[in-house]
């Protein structure tokens, strides 16, 4: 199984809503990532978890709250988002290694209204 | 965040032509990878280069890592319409901090 599964595929939420994005992998990878991708731009790293601990936070606003409940799951909790947070949110996983080869999910297309 | 600049940003060519995409940085990387992304999908890993001067071939695609491990190139021979997509280089500096380049959007016209 070389899949990274993200749910939901599409999400529309209001600025006062609370929602969560979910990501799951069963490749035994111990590093998991959240990226944000705006239209016609490359993915931007948000968070990295290594062995279920947050290892990198790229100065992401606190309205985005990551969680790694176990080695297979990664969540991104969303609260009080702004319209400019609308983007494709990508989850990825990899081995914990100097030469990261990341496997990506299909992403969640988030629209904040 | 270490900046990886790709050139060109956009490339539109006829089927059968050759092309080269460049990925440049002032920083040294422990490895560089190339991904291809299609609309509405996540990036898909094409190759990883680790050793300075390394050349890897994947069918019609040839990847090279610069001797100083600061830059890389992707050459496509006899482009096909199926090669259309967003090509992204990505660099590692230390474990698991993977940063993407600015991207090259390739369109191959039949």
Record the SSE blueprint.
The complex is a heterodimer of chains A (113) and B (110).
Chain A (H helix, E strand, L loop, with lengths): L3 E4 L2 E4 L4 E8 L5 E7 L6 E7 L2 E5 L6 E7 L2 E7 L7 E8 L8 E2 L3 E5 L1
Chain B lengths: L4 E3 L2 E5 L4 E6 L6 E7 L6 E6 L5 E4 L2 E5 L5 E6 L8 E8 L5 E3 L3 E6 L1
Parallel strand pairs in B: 2-11
Antiparallel strand pairs in B: 1-3, 3-8, 4-5, 4-9, 6-7, 7-8, 9-10, 9-11
Characterise this structure:
The complex is a heterodimer of chains A (113) and B (110). With 113 residues, chain A is an all-beta fold. Chain A is 0% helix and 57% strand. Chain A is built from no helices and 11 strands. In chain A, strands 2, 4, 5, 6, 9, 10 and 11 form a 7-stranded mixed beta sheet that branches. In chain A, strands 1-3-8-7 form a 4-stranded antiparallel beta sheet, with no helix packed on it. In chain A, a hairpin with a 6-residue loop joins strand 4 and strand 5. Chain A starts with a strand and ends with a strand. In chain A, 35% of the residues are buried. Chain B has 110 residues and is mainly β. Helices cover 0% and strands 54% of the residues of chain B. Chain B has no helices and 11 strands. In chain B, strands 2, 4, 5, 9, 10 and 11 form a 6-stranded mixed beta sheet that branches. In chain B, strands 1-3-8-7-6 form a 5-stranded antiparallel beta sheet, with no helix packed on it. In chain B, strand 9 and strand 10 form a beta hairpin. At the A-B interface, strand 4, strand 5, strand 9 and strand 10 of A face strand 4, strand 5, strand 9 and strand 10 of B.
